[in-house]
Every structure is written in C-alpha cells, then in structure tokens.
C-alpha cells in the first residue's frame, strides 16, 4: 500500500507466478466446451498472465502511441473473457486463489482502459453469481476471502467512481459492480460494513439517490443501500452522519402526491422506505428525522392516500417506537386525526390490494398507537389521545376489542396446531413455540393488551365500563387480558440492557396489578 496516496501499488502482475511449471501445460487454447479441470485452469491462467505481461510491456514502451498497444489490449480482453468459464467449476476456486491470479485481475480494475476494467467487473459478477453459491459455498468463500484481502472493495468502488453513465457499456458496469458487491455480502456478511468503512460507496449511493430522474441503476442503488443498512447499526449511524436521513426523506417526498410510473420505480420507492426504516433504528437518527420534519412528511403522504400510504405508516411506527419527542410531535401536527380513521379500518385502496398488505398496515397502526400511549404520558396531549377512545360512543374501544378477539383467536389456533405437532413427536422447545406464536399475531395481541392497560389505568370510568362490558360479551374477564400481559412481561428481552428491561417490565406489571 502506498501510504502517501492510500492506493494499492501496482505490482508486477507476473510476480510469484511460476511460469516454468505452467508452460508445459500450454498446448491448446480451451474453449467454452472444454472440460474444466485443474489442468485447464492452469492453461487459462498462464495464457492470461502472458497477455497481461505483453500489454504492460507495450504500454510502457509506447505510452503515447495507443495503436502500438491496441492489439495487446484486445488479446487481454479475450483472455479475461475466457476466464468466465471458471464460473462453471466453482470447486476450482481454491486452486485459482493458490495460483495467485487474483491480485493480477484486481490490478486491472484500475487499468487506464475502462473497457478492460469493465471486463474484470463482469468476470467478478460471473464468479460470484448467486447460482454459483447454491452448492459451492465453501469454495466461493475461499474466493471472496481472497478478493477482500486483496482490496477488491476499494478497487471496485474506485472504478465505479470513474464510470460514465451516459455510456451504455459503463451503465452495465455500474450494475455489475453493485451485483458483485451484493454477491460478496451474501457469502461474507461483514462485507456490508467493510465496504462502507473502506470506500466511498455510501457517498456514491447518496449522490445516485439525489438524482430526480428514475433509472435502473438508481433502483439498484436503493436496493444495495437497504442491504447495507438492514443488519448493520454501524452503517445506519454512518449514513445518518452523512445527512442520509434528509437525503432519503427528500427522495420519498417526490412520491407524496404521485404514484411511481412503473413496477421498477415502485420497487425503488419501497427500497427507499426500507432504508428509512433501517435508518430510524438508532436514537440519533430519530432525532435527525424529527428535525427534518419527517413526521410531518409521513402524515402528508398518508393524507394523500397514494401508493406510499402503508410505507409512511411503517416509517412512523419506527420513528415513534421508544422515542417520546416524535410521539409528541405526532400529536401536535394533527397526526391523531390522520391515524385513527385508519385504525378504525378505513384504509384507502391502493394498487396493492393483497390481504397481507392491509394486515401489515393494521399491525403497524396497533404498534403506533401503543407507542403513542408509551410516549405521551401527561398533559393536554395525553388528554387528546384518551379522548379519541371516548368520542363517538367509545367506538375506538370497540375496535380495540374487535382486534383483541381476532388476534387472540389466531394465537389460540396456532397454539393448538403446535400442540398437535408435539403429539406427532415433532419436538419443539419453548423459545421456538413462542416465536411461532409471535409470527401468528401474538405480538400484536400483546400490544393491544398494553393499550387496554393504558386505558384501564387512565381511571376514566366510561372507558373502564366499556372494556368490562365488551369482555363480558365475549365471555372473557380481565384475567384473560392479564394473562396476555404476563406472558409479554416474562418474555421482554434485554437487548437495550438490563435497566431498560427492568423499566419495561415495571410498566407492564403496573397494568397487571391495576387489573386485579
């Protein structure tokens, strides 16, 4: 590594290659029909290294006379193309690594001729293709480890930054670069953090997302960004510090009053909302969201009742969870007036009429209301929230009990199904059973019980009477709600630390005690 420039020095690519051992194997040029074995691999590598050496020599001898090294460049291109056949024999990747070919290939990503660099991008895309991964994970792991050790991420992104997207071949190379990075993340998940630590990829993606016009690479950039953010708190914080929250908000704001024009554009918008939700995990990004008036924008999107309606609710759910300032802002900017019609089931029809999409909106709204009760604890805002459950003859309490029964029945059915599986000798531990119940709707049932707990402890006589009446009509008692709360209490995790777990359990215990 050149410490003055931060760039990898271009070593002589023939270093460490034992030509004497390989020359004996060179008799015929392999074709795409050639059976791939170690012997063929060595022929391919030897031929590639020779043409690379010829090209370097020609460029050094005639630096200002392109016509003198043009032929060697065409021959080098042909050799790189031939190496693509290796994607059909991933079991040979460890041998490819042992032949020390990878450094030579990666040096070409900085070749003065971008066509040669693009050839290498296409080769890397083929070698790491998802179809290759299916049954050859170990061999591909060896290759990806070697690529990363030889600075493939830095070289790929450095090349990406010089590509001209007005050229169709270079547009294709942008796609190939992103695909290669995605493929490597699939094999080696920590590549997601490494590529953000070591390169300017996040900066490039931000620039791409800022462009108003839609294209396929903007769509793919949004998809890669979602992948980079979904499992990495470090990346979420890093992007937040790069004004990423504001950039993503501006990108989705383009769709507040219009729908995407194609399925690809629609997918991009969903990717952007996925990014926004990931960004809203760390506390500091919730603060940035609030400062950038993200709460107001999501409410505007909801009011417009376009395709992004459900996505805006999802983003609000993330923003309000465990963050009282966002809950207070939501009440202040008339969010209750927007959210509660949806809570009552008045969800506008959009292109996405799938039953599951509507159910997800419903679940998000339950979570959002639970967050509001947890974040707005006193004063006029609390009164406004409680008044929603009093108005129109307690219709919101009625709706809450309707949801309680629906989710309770689902969980009951799942519990019975799990018990039957156990009778069939399919062993399942308690954690797995609990997770299965969560997937069937237990988490939403628990949040509904939490909301009922907040309503009960508000000491509003009318609300209490209504809850008791509705429970009685369903042949239930407060004990049934307490049982749900107890299970929730006992399974609260300590991801946020033991102190936060204790606080959360104390809140739930307060509801349980109040319902004695």
From TrEMBL:
Localization, UniProt: Nucleus
Keywords assigned: Coiled coil, Nucleus, Phosphoprotein, Repeat
InterPro entries registered for this protein in UniProt: ARM-like, ARM-type_fold, CTNNBL1, CTNNBL1_N
Gene3D superfamilies (alphabetical): Leucine-rich Repeat Variant
Main location: nucleus
Beta-catenin-like protein 1 N-terminal domain span: 14-121
Regions annotated as coiled coil: 397-424
Alphabetical list of PANTHER family matching this protein: BETA-CATENIN-LIKE PROTEIN 1 (PTHR14978:SF0), BETA-CATENIN-LIKE PROTEIN 1 NUCLEAR ASSOCIATED PROTEIN (PTHR14978)
UniProt name for this protein: Beta-catenin-like protein 1
Annotated source species: Tanacetum coccineum
């Amino acid at each position: 590594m050149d410490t003055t420039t931060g760039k990898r020095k271009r070593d002589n690519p023939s270093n460490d290659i034992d030509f004497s051992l390989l020359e004996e194997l060179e008799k015929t040029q392999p074709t795409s029909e050639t059976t791939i074995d170690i012997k063929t691999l060595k022929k391919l590598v030897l031929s590639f290294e020779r043409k690379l050496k010829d090209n370097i020599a020609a460029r050094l001898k005639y630096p200002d006379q392109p016509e003198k090294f043009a032929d060697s460049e065409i021959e080098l291109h042909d050799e790189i193309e031939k190496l693509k056949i290796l994607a059909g024999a991933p079991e040979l990747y460890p041998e490819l690594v042992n032949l020390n070919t990878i450094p030579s290939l990666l040096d070409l990503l900085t070749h003065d001729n971008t066509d040669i660099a693009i050839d290498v991008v296409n080769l890397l895309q083929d070698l790491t293709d998802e179809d290759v991964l299916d049954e050859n994970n170990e061999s591909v792991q060896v290759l990806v480890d070697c690529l990363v050790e030889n600075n493939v991420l830095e070289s790929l992104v450095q090349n990406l930054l010089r590509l001209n997207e007005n050229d169709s071949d270079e547009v294709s190379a942008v796609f190939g670069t992103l695909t290669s990075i995605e493929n490597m993340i699939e094999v080696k998940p920590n590549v997601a953090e490494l590529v953000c630590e070591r390169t300017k990829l996040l900066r490039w993606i931000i620039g791409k997302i800022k462009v108003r016009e839609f294209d396929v690479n903007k769509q793919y950039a949004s998809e890669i960004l979602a992948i980079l953010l979904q499992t990495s708190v470090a990346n979420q914080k890093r992007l937040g510090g790069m004004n990423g929250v504001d950039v993503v908000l501006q990108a989705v704001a383009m769709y507040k009053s219009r729908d995407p024009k194609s399925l690809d554009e629609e997918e991009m918008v969903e990717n952007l909302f996925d990014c926004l939700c990931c960004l809203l995990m760390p506390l500091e990004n919730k603060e940035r969201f609030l400062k950038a008036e993200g709460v107001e924008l999501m409410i505007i999107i909801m009011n417009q009742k376009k395709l992004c309606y459900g996505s805006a609710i999802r983003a609000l759910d993330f923003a309000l969870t465990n963050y009282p300032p966002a809950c207070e802002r939501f009440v202040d900017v008339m969010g209750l007036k927007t959210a509660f019609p949806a809570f009552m089931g008045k969800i506008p029809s959009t292109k996405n009429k799938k039953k599951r999409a509507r159910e997800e909106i419903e679940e998000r709204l339950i979570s959002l209301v639970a967050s509001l009760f947890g974040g707005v604890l006193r004063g006029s805002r609390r009164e406004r929230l409680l008044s929603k459950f009093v108005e129109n003859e307690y219709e919101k309490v009625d709706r809450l009990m309707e949801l309680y029964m629906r989710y309770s029945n689902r969980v009951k059915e799942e519990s019975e199904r799990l018990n039957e599986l156990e009778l069939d000798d399919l062993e399942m531990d308690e954690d797995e059973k609990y997770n299965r119940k969560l997937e069937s709707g237990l988490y939403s049932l628990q949040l509904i019980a939490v909301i009922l707990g907040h309503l009960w402890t508000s000491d509003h006589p009318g609300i209490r009477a209504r809850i008791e009446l509705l429970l009685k009509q369903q042949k239930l008692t407060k004990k049934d709600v307490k049982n749900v709360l107890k299970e929730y209490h006992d399974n609260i995790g300590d991801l946020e630390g033991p102190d936060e777990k204790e606080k959360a359990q104390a809140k739930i215990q307060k509801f349980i005690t109040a319902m004695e």
